[in-house]
């Protein structure tokens, strides 16, 4: 996801669907034989300008290829892409996040197998590309990877007398209490979009479950181990401490100054659990241009006594897939997006924190961004967000069940039961 936005799964409406079908029918947002149509989620700077520059540079170097750029609000992709893949004229290039979501899309027969088209250069980005494989075939290519943690306002922490970020859940709860005592909302949450709620469940599950359990559960598409119910209890216990703003269930995550991202950007809340992309989202929402100098970052705290590997992080990535009509041209363009030139632009602009090209790592200058990059690099294992790792319908059921916990519905086992019942 604005910048590097996370894709939500429940924000589209019938009006959006109708608009898409109309666009596909008219050819205004679909692929064509003499060029490429590119759907991306960079609706705001800095990502929007990075992609504009990339498209312009590629067109200049490839005079016979026209790229029609179509920025689309992040929350609309989950509905728009399936509809487009059912149409006669889907986009040539479209944004996705790999995993089970991409596996579901590939079943349409419209998503191109890029295995042979990318084998000459894909090895340069290493293991990151594995998240875009389905049954051993490459159905997409990432351009960055992600890690989830807490972005916080150092100035608000100082006001509350907090001298260092918490490393344990007990310390986080104590810091939340200190912030509230000083009239500061501890944590902003964009519950309207549901996936930010799911981050909490995911993080607690990563702390409560072993790596072997995480892997086998995603493969089986079932959450039967007791650690998943323990994660649900952890979520409920944390909600009970009341760390979030009033009305968090109706607050959007990234749209407008009143969103959870906007709250932190404008000093209305001290923290937000979000991905490394969030400062680029905040940039378009902040009234203070110097807000970034007041941001710090820390990983999700350890849970005392929890058996999960503390070196495991929650994360994922962003990338693109091609549809079959112009797969060769699309694959060549994706190779350009992963070139050192574009990857450095992503980093220098603030649009990406963790580039997939090792050649771009040296472009990271901000010490906080370097902290995030190094934390991800040292991870013992990266658990992809469950709603992306699981098939689409199962991921949607999981997000809904997690959101219900934040709405006061369900119990500790509800999320696991939703996953188990969706298969």
TrEMBL record:
It comes from the Bacteria. InterPro entries: Bact_solute-bd_prot1 (IPR050490), SBP (IPR006059). Pfam families: SBP_bac_1. Keywords: Signal. Residues 1-29 form the signal peptide. The keyword Protein transport does not apply. The keyword Endoplasmic reticulum does not apply. This is Raffinose/stachyose/melibiose transport system substrate-binding protein.
